[in-house]
Specification:
By secondary structure, the protein is α+β, with helices and mostly antiparallel strands. The protein has 2 domains: 8-37 and 100-180, PH-domain like (Roll), CATH 2.30.29; 44-95. 36% of the residues lie in helices and 26% in strands. It has helices spanning 8-11, 43-57, 69-98, 140-145, 167-180; strands spanning 31-35, 101-105, 108-115, 119-126, 130-136, 147-154, 158-165. The strands form 2 sheets. Strands 1-2-3-4 form a 4-stranded antiparallel beta sheet. Strands 5-6-7 form a 3-stranded antiparallel beta sheet. Strand 2 and strand 3 form a beta hairpin. Helix 2 (43-57) runs antiparallel to helix 3 (69-98). The longest helix has 30 residues, at 69-98. Mean pLDDT is 83; it is low at 1-17 and 187-191.
Length: 191
């Protein structure tokens, strides 16, 4: 299972005896599963960056550009600067994806969402307050690449974990954690 979803304990990256595996971990709380969104969530930035690099280099293909030394120098600088800017933007997006994780413990689900370098938001949901967990694989691309949305109904509403890699496996792990936490599985849910 460690190959399909990132589990700190099973992957050997963390020792079960460590007191805290993430900031805000409660005393005696055990981490069951750690996972993140599918890497395809970064595809828009990748495609736009490749388009920007192509458009930045394209003017150098026309021989008329080289008739003017100033114009050739300008477009050469643009062709060198655009890839650097695109790489910075890609790195920024990668930081946001890599450090945005979901952590399932024996008591709660914690979502740590990183946006850029200095913006971090943390949300949590208690497992014993979760009534229902569903997943949805929507469309051809999601089916081919193996990602989908996981939705959970709680006492206060619904929360969605979008574009999760291997949603079937993650759903099963979350359901097992909810059952182990004593979530109100058999009680009717009233809106």
């Amino acid at each position: 299972m460690a190959g399909k979803c990132y589990n700190l304990i099973m992957s050997g990256k963390a020792k079960p005896t460590e007191p805290h595996l993430f900031p805000g971990q409660l005393k005696g709380e055990r981490v069951e599963l750690v996972f993140r969104q599918h890497p395809l969530v970064m595809r828009k930035a990748l495609l736009l960056g490749l388009l920007a690099i192509t458009l930045g280099v394209l003017p150098l293909d026309f021989p008329q550009i080289y008739s003017s030394e100033a114009l050739a120098g300008f477009f050469t600088k643009v062709a060198l600067i655009v890839p650097v800017i695109v790489l910075i933007i890609w790195f920024y997006r990668w930081i946001g994806w890599y450090y945005s994780i979901y952590i399932v413990t024996d008591r709660r689900i914690v979502w740590i969402r990183q946006r850029g370098f200095f913006d971090r938001a943390v949300q949590e949901w208690q497992l014993d307050k979760i009534y229902n967990v569903n997943y949805h694989v929507n469309g051809f691309q999601a089916a081919i690449f193996g990602y989908g949305d996981i939705m959970a109904k709680t006492v206060i509403g619904e929360f969605v974990m979008p574009k999760i890699h291997h949603p079937v496996d993650i759903h099963r792990h979350i359901m097992e954690a909810v059952q182990a936490a004593g979530g109100p599985q058999d009680q009717p849910f009233d809106n």
